[in-house]
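Help: why these numbers?

___
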Amino acid sequence: MSKLLTRAAGTVAVALLATGLSPASATTQATAAAPSGNRSLATVLTSDGNRFDRNAHDYDVTTEAVLAVLEAKPDSAVGVLADGSQPLTAFVPTDRAFRRLVHALTGKWVRSERHVFEAVAGLGIDTVEQVLLYHVVPGSTIDRRAALASDGARLTTAAGPTVTVDVRRSPRRVVLLDRDPNAYNPRIVRFDLNRGNKQIAHAVNRVLRPADL
């Protein structure tokens, strides 16, 4: 696993060029003071032993999806998550978020995280890659404070399409508007994973959809 992430980090610059992205690709720059840490989000995601469990609030399905894409496509732009020197903001779906997606697509509730992952992987590696990239905003380290001050910001994702930040006041929360107008929009449920590093993440309770499903 560590060799896979290292190889991905080594090819991330090529992958970003291949997708036509630049470090300043966010439509609206909503950054706080630049952090200095270089710990990657891939390191954070795999720090719990990289195994499925019964905790619906962590990120095992996301972790396995990232590793599956990099195994199949080592030069994928998803590899940016393994290069802590590259600033980015990621919106990381919880395991429950992926379970909700599988239910929305199949009409069935899948119990185990492993079976949820298998259902997601069944969409095809290219689809999984695009979904993951739609959760990544390269070039910007957007922390909680910046997010709450960014109502209406349109963030260009690594997949290309934008995500719009919708800050709601009562109760105060951050909702993300994706490309599927018929689905519930994801909400940030935990802020500032990997705080102090150039790569930061926020947990979301639903999967962002890059297209109308």
Remarks:
- The chain has a mean pLDDT of 88.
